[in-house]
Amino acid sequence: MFPSSRLGLLGEFNLSLEGERQDLWLTAQRLLALLAVVHRTKRARRATVAERLWPDAPPGRAGSSLRSVLWRLPRPRGRALVIGNATEVWLSTDLKVDLWEAEEHAQLLRTTDPQALPDHRADLALFRDDLLPEWEESWLVAEREAYRQKRLHALERTAGLLCERGLYTDALDAGLGAVQSEPLRETAHRSVIAVHLAEGNHAEALRQYDGYRRLLADELGLRPSAGIRTLIAPLLGRPVDLRSPD
Predict the structure, then answer these.
(1) How many domains does the chain have?
(2) Model confidence over 79-122: pLDDT tens digits?
(3) pTM of the model
(4) Are 34 and 122 contained in the same domain?
(5) d(CA 233, CA 1)
(6) Treating both helix axes as pointing N-terminal to C-terminal, what angle do 226-236 and 202-220 enclose, rounded to 10 degrees?
(7) Same domain as 131, residue 106
(8) What is the pLDDT of residues 168-185, one digit of tens each?
(9) Residues near 230 by Cβ (< 8 Å), separated by ≥ 6?
């Protein structure tokens, strides 16, 4: 039986084999991350991978460097993490990747009947971190932003589902997680306000709205949308958009 192998890309890089963390040199980390993030389960041309990992090196030297990294990668029980032939390389199908799992669950949150989903509190840990936020690889920029949007939508969706089940503390954790990741994101603030309203904490709902209103005015010179103003308007007994910004 193939040993348990798991690649962590959310937050910091982490490769574990049979539950034990493996210390890899940076180039090996970049190779595994590149294959998992950009190429996924597909095969990648060796020349393409080498060029992305060593963009300033001559093709021959880049190819030689790739061969060296592949040769030095861990081989748990003789099984390769990266498989290759003369022209292509690809990840072993036995390697589990947390990014893939998070994206699959985010898709389920969008398309599955909420009653058929398991306890949503587990989603809070799954969507806590962005994709390798400290890395500065050029090939990672677009992929990181794409995952960030999926993660924020998943957190907002999770907040709503937890709120419907009366799990207000966990719902707030999810909503505030989205706010922390993107303070100017209105839908994130709306998810937090909705939880406060459901719990009957009207002062907290108004405080959340007012903090967002001030931030939006200071940073962008904008006012909140009619949607979020309507959400808290009943608490004031009058349209909140008549309030002049400070």
Answers:
(1) 2
(2) 899 999 999 999 999 899 999 999 999 998 888 776 666 667 77
(3) 0.88
(4) no
(5) 61
(6) 140
(7) yes
(8) 999 999 999 999 999 999
(9) none
- Residue 205: give its domain's CATH number: 1.25.40.10
- What element of type H or E holds 153? helix 141-164
65: amino acid identity, one letter:
S
Residue with tokens 């993660």: 151
Token pair 């985010």 in the structure block, residue: 106
Cα(70)–Cα(143) distance, integer angstroms = 24
Which of residues 93, 122, 139 is at a domain's end? 93
pLDDT above 70 coverage of the chain, percent? 92
Ranges of beta strands (E only) in 92-185 are 95-97
What's the pLDDT at 242? 46
Q: Do 45 and 163 sit in the same domain of this protein?
A: no
**What is the identity of the amino acid at 109?**
L
| Per-residue model confidence (pLDDT) at position 119 | 67
- 45 secondary structure, DSSP code: E
Distance CA 145, CA 137 (A): 13
Tokens 């209105």 — which residue? 186
Last residue of a domain, one of 35, 58, 93: 93
Handedness of CA 221, 226, 231, 236 (dihedral sign): positive
The string of pLDDT tens digits covering residues 127-168 is 999 999 999 999 999 999 999 999 999 999 999 999 998 999
Owning domain of residue 112: 97-242
Q: Taking a C-beta distance cutoff of 8 angstroms, is the pair 90, 84 a contact? A: yes
Instruction: Find out whether 40 and 157 touch, Cβ atoms under 8 Å.
Output: no
Distances (CA, A) of 149 to 12, 41, 127, 131, 235: 19, 22, 11, 11, 31
